[in-house]
Every structure is written in structure tokens, then in C-alpha cells.
Amino acid sequence: MSGYATPYEALGEDGIRALTSAFYDYMDSAPEVAGIRAMHGKDLAPMKERLAEYLIGWMGGPQVYAEKYGSVCMTSPHKGYAIGTSERDQWLLCMDKALEQIGAEEALKQMLKEPMFAIADMVRNRD
Ligand code: HEM
Predict the structure, then answer these.
(1) If pLDDT is split at 50, 70 and 90, which confidence band does 71 have?
(2) Which pTM was predicted?
(3) CA 22/CA 2 separation, integer angstroms
(4) What CA–CA distance (Å, rounded) separates 52 from 13?
(5) With respect to CATH, is domain 10-123 assigned 1.10.10.10?
(6) What average pLDDT does the segment 22-30 reach?
(7) Residues 55-71: what's their mean pLDDT?
(8) Could you tell me the residue ranges of all domains in the chain?
(9) Residue 2 pLDDT
(10) Where does ligand 1 bind, in terms of residues with CB under 6 Å?
């Protein structure tokens, strides 16, 4: 038993911010994800905050991103980028490494596995 009903209950806002920080730090440093790093602006700090705001709601907490930006559909902000299976898998690798980095427990990783894949695959806009 994990003792929590949602990833938000497990991590809280601080945990989710630590996760997105580790996510973009990995993206910024690992050669195998250089392809998606190159799609992003030089300064990743604003993205750390935006992804945290999005994930806080997506993981079962308050809808911070929706309140600020209106929409929670992730396909439109990604329309201008060529995202295929390779880019999706690079993104998911950053997430796996970030979960490891923050010391997420196995139950949480399992809880996130399928929905994270599903949302990353939804953002994909080509093969
Ligand atoms: C599947 C691979 C993905 C790639 C390659 C990708 C790449 C990108 C890029 C290049 C941007 C624009 C960054 C900038 O403005 O500098 C962006 C924005 C964003 N991405 Fe992704 N992304 C992916 C998946 C996801 C997923 C699955 C989520 C949510 C769980 C997500 C959440 C966001 C958010 C919240 C923004 C900011 C949108 C805004 O408010 O303008 N991304 N992404």
C-alpha cells in the first residue's frame, strides 16, 4: 500500500517543483536528450515553473496552470515542434531520471508510469 491516492499527495507542491527542476537539469546536461534540449530556450527556469504548475494540477492538486493560462490541453503549446517517438522517449527519460533524482518510491513510479506515457504520447504529433 502506498498510503496516498494521488501523486500530488505523495509529492506536494515542493516535491513537484523538485521534480521539474531535476527534469530540466537532466535535459540540460545529458547528451542523449540533446535533441529535445535544442527545442527549448536558453533559460530553462521559466519552463521549470510552468511544468511544475501544470503537473501540480495534473497530479491531483490545485489547478494552478489552468487558472493562469486557461487551457490544460497540452497538444496546442507543442504544435510548433516536431515531436515523434524519439522526442517522446527523450522526454520520458528525463522524467524517469528526475523521479530517480528526487528519490521517488517505487509505488509512485508505478502510479505515474502509464499516465505519463499516455500524456507524452498525446503530445506527439508525428511518427
Ligand atoms: C513528448 C515530448 C515533449 C517535448 C519534446 C516537449 C517540448 C516542449 C517545448 C519545446 C516547449 C516550449 C518551450 C519553450 O517555450 O521554451 C514545451 C512547452 C511546454 N510543455 Fe512540453 N514537451 C513534451 C511533452 C510534454 C508533456 C507530456 C507535458 C505535460 C505533462 C509538457 C508540458 C509542457 C508545458 C506546461 C509547456 C509550457 C506551455 C506553455 O504554457 O506555453 N510537455 N514543451
Answers:
(1) confident
(2) 0.97
(3) 23
(4) 8
(5) no
(6) 99
(7) 95
(8) 10-123
(9) 65
(10) 36, 39-41, 47, 50-51, 54, 69, 74, 77-78, 81, 83, 87-88, 91, 119-120, 123-124
- CA-wise closest residue to 102 among 8, 21, 36: 21
Provide the grid cell at 79. 504544435
pLDDT digit string (tens) for 91-108? 999 999 999 999 999 999
| Nearest atom of ligand 1 to the alpha carbon of 51 | 35
* Integer Cα distance of 44 and 27 in angstroms: 9
- Ligand 1 pocket test target in 33, 72, 74, 122 with most atoms within 8 Å of CB: 74
Which residue bears the cell 547528451?
Answer: 31
- Nine cell digits for residue 75: 497538444
> What are residue 41's phi and psi, to 5 degrees?
-65, 170
Enter the C-alpha cell of residue 30.
545529458
Residue with cell 521534480: 19
Percent pLDDT > 90 in the chain is 96
